[in-house]
Here is the input.
Amino acid sequence: MRMKMQMQMKKIVAAAVLGTVLASGVVLAPAGAQPVRLKDVARVQGVTANQLVGYGVVMGLAQSGDSTSVLFTSKTIQNVLQSFGLSTTSQDVRTRNVAAVIVTASLPAFGHSGDTIDVTVSSMGDAVSLQGGTLVLTELRAPNNLVYATAQGPVSVGGFTASDATGANSITKNHVTAGRVPQGAVLARDMITNIQQDQAGFSYVLTSPDFKTAARVAQTLNGRFGAGTARANDAETIRVNLPPRYAGDPVNFLADAGDLSVNADTLAKVVVNERTGTVVMGGDITLATCAIAHGNLSITIATQNTVVPPGPFTNAPAQTQTNTRISATESGRRLVYISGAATLAQVVRALNTIGVSPRDLIAIIQALRESGSLQADVEII
Here is the structure.
């Protein structure tokens, strides 16, 4: 009987607490951690694309290439012809059908010799358009100055340019001094990654560094593959030692670990783009107790010129009189009080009550951050 009365009392107390919470308008915020797959929040250290660059020429242009004043283009044409056994001078290569270009490409992490990749071609001189041109065989080098690929092929600019015979009138669509050569580069070397070099283990790198997320990743891996498998070195790096059954086989370990569910912690952050008026809020953003006053000040200056005729007994010319009126109005003034520990939904709802635009919201967010009321990081891009 006593236990039954205690259970009823607990229900009554719980109902009273719940009623108080609902009456006060407090909304319980969800937990900051969100379950995601491990491979969506972390990557393997050292497994990344590498940048390649080269210098080449695009030929076959319809008088839209570099002018003869671009000396390095003329030198390049001379060198190309010399490689074919033709000796020329600078006067012999005065043509506008050639453009000097920089060729760039991204080498995949697991690229092998014989694979093909896309390349981007960008004009260096004063070429008008690369439309219809063909990239001549170009070596692509990595920062270690080794040749990793060679590129060649027709350039696709994704636009066009057209003009009359005189060149005075023309029309251009999109950017025609840069283009792509799809599958235009052939890899000449194999990429060697850390996974292939270190068979004992590797390191995970979080895409968004966070101490709590790093600790949770290590705990998840240890719980799945055994104690001592993973250890968080810092907020970004988790060192993984391959378990005995995965010795020398990191690929299968990554395949099994990639789908593990991890509670990734989210940061309270506000990203502001002042150029476009964009505001993005993420995480559980809270505000300390504060009051926000916002109003729009509109200043109008109107000038009206009036012609004043001369008097009846004078030959003086008519005079012009300038009348200027200045008026200032302030509309939409509100004072909004926000209680402490307000959640993101409550903050947005409170700011909407004063009718702020995105650009006004940017100013309010910066002021809240300066006053210490906004409990979040503000990043202005």
